[in-house]
Design goal:
Protein name: F-box domain-containing protein
Oligomer: single chain
Helix content: under 10%
Pfam families: F-box (PF00646), Kelch_KLHDC2_KLHL20_DRC7 (PF24681)
Largest sheet: 4 strands, antiparallel
Strand content: 35-45%
Structural class: mainly beta
Strand order of the largest sheet: 3-2-1-24
């Protein structure tokens, strides 16, 4: 049967690949043939080759002026998943994850895996109990599903990053006794299975995870004895050899929180430092752009296609503003941010749809 009656299939595919990503679930519902087409690897390869795929930024973001009375501490804001499309400047939000009508788990992590968004861990917003839950939003079906829970004891404030294709990597954090962890694991989305990784050499609570060039970088953090005094080092897990590298010393400044560290598509590492965006050159961080005044507090960085998205606020408790730092000249472009999407941001990731 033809994909579109009276049209050759190659022409029909040219029509289908032009449909926006947020309509994939509608396409899949039309017919079995369309569903198979939209879910095929070739469909998305053709979209990308034709310059039709789009970078999507996903943020765990507080809903402005909304705190549920069901929460343990009613003043705590409710968090949701916000989507931002840099190419069009459009903002939207995903439906609530199943079982969390009062908002996402606090301090959860999110990672893009293929055409799925994976949400892991955090604290139950009603009870503040540590969650091991894994939720997967499939953009093909437009629906959530439950993944296999994180194994082992409780884990909070861990490093998390995805290879963007199949796996999510988790390392460090702390247990329910505030003991920093050096254990690590990976989640295979296709198999819905967790597998242990070798332990890191050091305990790393509140560390940052970055996946780049086939390697899972775990940056900074602190041991149980140090409690909040961040160290400068990093460890790197090579997926090909399934081994951790020797600890890399002096990656950060003493006492620096690694939360803003990101890796650009061109292989450079960036972070916010002393009111600037800085790039790592060798063992030195060089400032490349001063942060605009309205995003200097609590900044968040994300990267896609050589650009940096930076969100932050001018004063504590104020609205978040959004800017793009465009390469190669590191010039700022302010993004129009609707009030309903100006809430506090805890985490984020990027997908290509």
């Amino acid at each position: 049967m033809d994909l579109i009656p009276c049209l050759p299939d190659e022409i029909a595919r040219e029509c289908l690949i032009r449909v926006p990503y947020n309509q994939f679930s509608t396409l899949s519902a039309v017919s079995k043939g369309w569903k198979e087409e939209v879910e095929s690897v070739q469909f998305h390869q053709q979209r990308k080759a034709g310059g039709l795929s789009r970078a999507i930024v996903a943020l765990t973001q507080a809903e402005q002026n909304r705190a549920s009375p069901a929460l343990k501490y009613p003043a705590t804001p409710a968090y949701r998943l916000t989507l931002f499309e840099p190419a069009t400047g459009s903002w939207s939000s995903l439906p609530p994850a199943p079982g969390f009508p009062d908002g996402l788990p606090l301090f959860c992590q999110c990672a893009g895996v293929g055409r799925n968004l994976v949400v892991i861990g955090g604290w139950n917003p009603t009870t503040w109990e540590v969650s091991k839950a894994v939720f997967v939003f499939d953009f093909m079906s437009g629906k959530w599903r439950r993944g296999a829970d994180m194994p082992g004891g409780s884990r909070s404030f861990f490093a998390c990053a995805s290879d963007s294709d199949r796996k999510v990597f988790v390392a460090g954090g702390h247990d329910d006794e505030k003991n920093a962890l050096n254990s690590a694991m990976s989640y295979d989305l296709a198999k819905d299975e967790w597998a242990p990784l070798p332990d890191m050499e050091r305990q790393r609570d509140e560390c940052k995870g970055i996946f780049h060039a086939g390697k899972f970088h775990v940056i900074g953090g602190y041991s149980t004895d140090m409690q909040g005094r961040f160290e400068r080092s990093a460890e790197v897990f090579d997926v090909a050899t399934w081994q951790w590298s020797k600890v890399e010393e002096d990656v950060l400044d003493t006492g620096s929180c690694p939360r803003t560290c990101v890796a650009g598509t061109e292989g450079k590492f960036y972070r916010c430092k002393a009111g600037h965006v800085a790039v790592l050159e060798g063992v030195m961080w060089r400032s490349v752009a001063e942060l605009p005044a309205d995003i200097r507090l609590s900044p968040n960085l994300l990267t896609w296609q050589g650009n940096l998205l930076v969100l932050g606020m001018a004063k504590y408790g104020g609205p978040y503003a959004t800017y793009v730092l465009e390469s190669p000249n590191y010039t700022w472009r302010k993004v129009e941010t609707p009030e309903e999407y100006s809430g506090h941001v805890q985490a984020g990731c990027c997908l290509e749809m």
